[in-house]
Amino acid sequence: PGTGPDAAAAPPARIRMGVSDLPQVPDGLRWPVVLGIDPGTLVVGYGAVVQRPEGPALLAAGALRASRSAAVPTRLGHLRQELDLLMERLRPPTVVVEHAYTAVNVQSALRVGEGRGVALSCAACRGAEVVQYQASQAKKALAGQGSADKERVARMVAAELGLERAPEPLDASDALALALTYVHRSRFERAAR
Prior knowledge:
This protein has a five-stranded mixed sheet. By secondary structure, the protein is of the alpha/beta class. It is 43% helix and 19% strand. It has helices spanning 72-90, 106-125, 135-143, 150-161, 170-192; strands at residues 33-38, 43-52, 55-65, 94-98, 129-133. Strand 1 (33-38) and strand 2 form a beta hairpin. The chain has five helices and five strands, in the order βββαβαβααα. The longest helix has 23 residues, at 170-192.
């Protein structure tokens, strides 16, 4: 996308996979950016949409990755730096983070909780409105079922954003599903007033 006020008026030709090549969202962008985050300590999916009156448009999607061999605090520190840069570039007034869930594997739940803490603190430090949804809420909003699999959600994300194929990796599609859920709910709340 370009860097003018209409930069996000249409989906970009390709989905950007790294933070370093994302454009700086200009101060004068007419529509708010909604950033979804699918947290973790190895991979953090992100997906940003622009909330336009005629419907959401893809701004950016991808995944932040930490080294599997690094200690957990080092991974979290790396992800914090990447998320800070991501939020600085995209300037989202709203950040949607997947809500904590209880998993069968306690260790896995703890790791996801640590990643969520990093994402929540980054958003709060930027002064963004922080919204949290369960994964099942996003699945239901996009695919009609709270138990829909990740591939189906990815296809629905692609269809809603007018993309030829689903964003990759699936962590990015999950993050976009969170952002789109916020857009849907906001539209419904405005209509109900």
